[in-house]
Amino acid sequence: MKQQRPLAITNGQLITPAGLVTGGLRAEGGVITQCGDVTMQDGDDVVDARGQLMAPGLVDLGVFAIDKPAFHFGGITRAALMPDQNPPLDLPSRVSYIAKSGKPDLWVHPLAAATSGLSGEQLAEIGLMKAAGARGVATGRRWIADSGVMLRLLQYAAMLDLVVVSHAEDAGLSGESAATAGEMATRMGLPSAPAEAEALAIARDIALAEIAGARLHIRQVTTRAGLALVKAAKSRGVAVTAGVTPAHFMLSDLATSGFRTFARLSPPLRCDEDRKAVVAAIGEGVIDVISSGHDPRGPEDKRLPFADAEEGMAGAETLLAMTLTLVRDNVIDLPRAFDLLARNPARLLGVEAGELAIGKEADIALIDPEKPWIVDRRKMEATADNTPFDSFPTQGRVMALFKGGARV
Amino acid sequence: MTFGRYPAGGLAFPHRDLLGIAQLERHEILYLLDEAEPWVDLNRQPSKHSDTLAGLTIINAFFENSTRTLLSFEIAGKRLGADVVNMHAAQSSVKKGETLIDTAITLNAMRADAIVIRHGSSGAVDLIASKVDCPVLNAGDGSHEHPTQALLDALALRHALRERGEAAEDFTGLVITICGDILHSRVARSNILCLQALGASVRLCAPPALMPAGVETIGAEPFHDFDAALEGADVVMMLRLQNERMQGQFIPSAREYHHLYGLTLERLKRAAPDALVMHPGPMNRGVEIDSEVADMLDRSIITRQVEMGVAIRMSCLDILTRRTRGVEGWT
Q1: B248, B259: one domain
Q2: What is the pLDDT of residue A395?
């Protein structure tokens, strides 16, 4: 499904890093050739955007499954796949297979396993995996407990100019916990860990990244203390970036009441003070990336007692709508929303996409930001229905999606 | 039962299941206690049989080992005339990989009239209850709740107070200290809620590693110093040190625990004169409680707790099966 004819989309509102631009764009050979004012030519495939938003296709940094229908519903044209697969992405052959797996209408960017078998002990063949198509290195669902291993990983990744995507929960504190210590966990009798487990892990990883001169992306920063550390590190020039999923700015641990395993996440949901701190950090620019953390889990993983259930949520379909709530609440504006959803993650992965500009990949979503809909887990496109936002009324839908100039 | 004390018929206890004290109102707790009184009397007769639940099947599904709770539920069901079947996890297909939901559906298909469940994971009983058609009684789920234990503790305490002539409707004004592994204890959670609902103020005492976060928000007062926690307490409830849940290093040793948190005669003097001593059992004598305290005839009500356990479970089984049995006002 490579782009056959030039594409011209007219009469839209382009979301560019500089702001909203009325106009359209033209794409040829999969790449944006005109942006704003468009000169149509004979033979162009013309699409009238009818005043809708024209945004870059979302770049979802850190998903756990390739789930094309869900990604396309959510306007996601590129997804960086976490190495936590079965078997893990710790060999070049697996990486190269995955790198081709979504084409042409979804590009999957594999994140190489940092350590062999994701065990946190021996460095995997990161250089060979980079050559095979890996766009970053990830520690996986878990933290690397051994500081020596983490330092060597960061140094190695810096040499290869790959971003290191880390999971920030101190393993000694988090242990087998299923919740954040606090009133909810106490009432429900759940094994819990203090929220400070995150700040401890972040402090160490930032210190090591500074020594190594590496690019560190903390996939989810969900606590006030963790965000403060990221902010301080950024202000002294450390190459650290932070991400979050909508769960941690939309929900607090109250959502786990009644032992709702769809709200069993990693890291676990936090208290409402931390949720508010995440919202503030998105507004201040401390957080750089909002991703779906897409991790569809069937009933065999979720219809279990809370602590026995697997972590994770099916988030691809709700990523855009939940992020747009931040725009409606005046936390961020539209261009900044798409920095978080597309431009920043594309930069971290080093791919020429994620913004509407000449020369970038023509990954385009036509969006009706007002369209109301209700999240209904029975009607989801994802391979599983584990959304913590079931029955949430929300607004904002992708009306059409183009990957490399070809309609999806 | 006094006329008009409770809402009429089934409104006195409108729940299908008994999953936790958290779901209960004060008057519903009192109703369960009051309805247990006739069973206390029956259990003290030479012939302890009732035909109230004749023809009904009760399954005790215990996914976690238990001796006394299982026995207590079995005796309660049998004294009410029900057919009681026990399912032990060790013998069950749970070990063969069957999911909890499938086990629940299987039990349901056998048309039990009530299912009593103990499970090692918090929330497991709620999950099973959502999948079956009959009343479910929580006999302990993980570190979450153990409602019949809290109810029997309240009944035992009420009897002991009445015998002393302190006939009170509830526990208003009493200071009750619960000491031990609060973090892992479902007994503590159910008791905090139950005792508070009945008017008592609750103190909790544990080393920091065994004290859950945020107990103040539930209205309990946390202590790490046992002597301070005991000061003037009317009731001291000791909890068992749960060695099977100690996956990490929570305390250095049993003897050090005894040094700091063991209830000795000397320590008990700090509590109110004649303060009552309780323990849900089984006791680790010489660890959390000394034998000379546990065996005090006038102060320790530990064996009475066991006695009341049967009566309160009879009360719960009776009340929860009234809809099935078509008792007037409950249909």
Answers
A1: yes
A2: 97
Same domain, B266 and B312: no
Domain range spanning residue B141?
9-145+307-325
Between chains, do A307 and B121 touch, taking CB under 8 Å as contact?
Answer: yes
B4 located within any domain? no
A369's enclosing H/E stretch is strand A364-374
Q: Give how far A139 is from chain B: nearest CA, Å.
A: 25
pLDDT score of B1 more than 60? no
Beta strand A364-374 with A393-403 is: antiparallel
Residue-wise pLDDT for A351-403, tens only, equals 999 999 999 999 999 999 999 999 999 999 999 999 999 999 999 999 999 99
What per-residue confidence (pLDDT) applies to B331? Answer: 84
- R_g (Cα) of chain A, nearest Å: 20
* C-alpha distances in Å from residue B23, one per residue of A262, B14, B114, B292: 22, 11, 19, 38
B298 φ/ψ angles, rounded to the nearest 5 degrees: -90, -15
Domain count, chain A: 1
pLDDT in tens, A200-255: 999 999 999 999 999 999 999 999 999 999 999 999 999 999 999 999 999 999 99
Both B152 and B141 in one domain: the answer is no
Q: Is residue A264 part of a domain?
A: yes
What count of other Cβ atoms lies within 10 Å of the Cβ of residue A159?
13
CB contact under 8 Å between A175 and B123, yes or no, is: no
- Same domain, yes or no: B43 and B140: yes
* Residue A129: its H or E element: helix A126-131
Whether A406 is in a domain gets the answer: no
Chain B residues whose beta carbon lies within 8 Å of the beta carbon of residue A186: 189, 212-215, 217-218
Would you call B126 and A189 a contact, using CB atoms and an 8 Å cutoff?
Answer: no
Same-domain pairing of B229 and B96:
no
Confidence of residue A4 (pLDDT cuts 50, 70, 90): confident
By Cβ distance, the residue of B123, B215, B247 closest to A306 is B123
Domains in chain B, number: 2
List, in sequence order, every residue forming a beta bridge with B88; answer none if it has no partner. Answer: B62
Give the C-alpha separation, B97 to B173, whole Å. Answer: 50
CA dihedral over A307, B250, B152, B198, signed as positive or negative: negative
Question: Residue A255 sits in a domain of what CATH number?
Answer: 3.20.20.140
What's the pLDDT score for residue B90?
Answer: 59
Please judge whether B218 and A307 are an interchain contact, meaning their C-beta atoms are less than 8 angstroms apart: no
Q: Is residue B83 part of a domain?
A: yes
Is A386 within a domain? no
Task: Give the pLDDT score at B166.
Answer: 84
pLDDT at B167 over 80: no
Q: Which of A128, A136, A91 minimizes the C-alpha distance to A110?
A: A136
CATH of the domain at B41: 3.40.50.1370
Residue A256: closest C-alpha in chain B: B123
B151 and B191 Cβ atoms separated by less than 8 Å? no
Domain assignment of residue B256, yes or no: yes
Instruction: Evaluate whether residue B2 is within a structural domain.
Output: no
CA distance B319 to chain A (A): 24
Q: What percent of chain A has pLDDT over 70?
A: 100
Which residue is listed with tokens 């203390």? A225
Distance, first Cα to last Cα, chain B: 20
Residue-wise pLDDT for B21-80, tens only, equals 999 999 999 999 999 999 999 999 999 999 999 999 999 999 988 889 999 999 999 999
Residue A373 domain-assigned (yes or no): no
Residues B167 and B290 reside in one and the same domain: yes
Residues B81 and B222 grouped into a single domain: no
Print the domain residue range for A108: 60-354
- One domain, residues B120 and B186: no
* CB contacts, 8 Å: A259 with chain B: 122-123, 126-127
ipTM attached to this prediction: 0.91
